[in-house]
Amino acid sequence: MSDTDPNCLFCKIVSGDIPAEIVSETEHTVAFRDVDPQAPTHVLVIPRVHQPDIASLVDAAPEAAVELLKETRRVAQADGHDSYRLVFNTGPDAHQTVFHVHGHVLAGRSLTWPPG
């Protein structure tokens, strides 16, 4: 699979072709605020490489998957949160709408269980 997909919204954010409120960047990741936040902190952390879901990323680029997970904690802590939820929607039945792996970092309010 290619490192990027020219039709992918998130690949266009990584390349800078589409603006986003970037909160952090690493060699392997880009983190930006969700345009429809579901909590006071709602940041998407994505790998720079294009993979459709977290399992595919682990298989194709395990170092990018590890960096993505590390970055989720840094993003939450940078917003002042030690407690946060990390969500990966995988597939259309899980309500994944952009098929470029992304972790939702949610914090800043009490999060109920079960979700959805």
Kindly report the spatial arrangement of strands forming the biggest sheet.
1-2-3-5-4
Round the mean pLDDT to the nearest integer and report it: 95
* Apparent shape: globular
Count of DSSP helices?
3
Describe the largest sheet.
5 strands, antiparallel
**Class from secondary-structure proportions:** alpha+beta
Strand content: 15-25%
Distance between the termini: 32 Å
Q: What integer value in Å does the Rg equal?
A: 13 Å
Number of strands: 5
Write the H/E string, N to C: HEEEHHEE
Regions with little confidence, pLDDT below 50 for 5+ residues: none
What helical percentage do the residues reach? Answer: 25-40%
Detailed description of the structure:
By secondary structure, this protein is α+β, with helices and mostly antiparallel strands. It contains three helices and five strands; from the N terminus they run H-E-E-E-H-H-E-E. It has helices spanning 9-15, 54-60, 62-78, and strands at 22-25, 29-33, 41-47, 85-87, 103-107. Strand 2 and strand 3 form a beta hairpin. Helix 2 crosses helix 3. It starts with 8 loop residues before the first helix and ends in a 9-residue tail after the last strand.
What is this entry, summarized?
By secondary structure, the chain is α+β, with helices and mostly antiparallel strands.
Keyword list:
single chain, 116 residues, alpha+beta, 5-stranded antiparallel beta sheet, 3 helices, globular
Write the layout of secondary structure elements.
Blueprint: H1 9-15, E1 22-25, E2 29-33, E3 41-47, H2 54-60, H3 62-78, E4 85-87, E5 103-107
Antiparallel strand pairs: 1-2, 2-3, 3-5, 4-5
Helix pairs in contact: 2-3
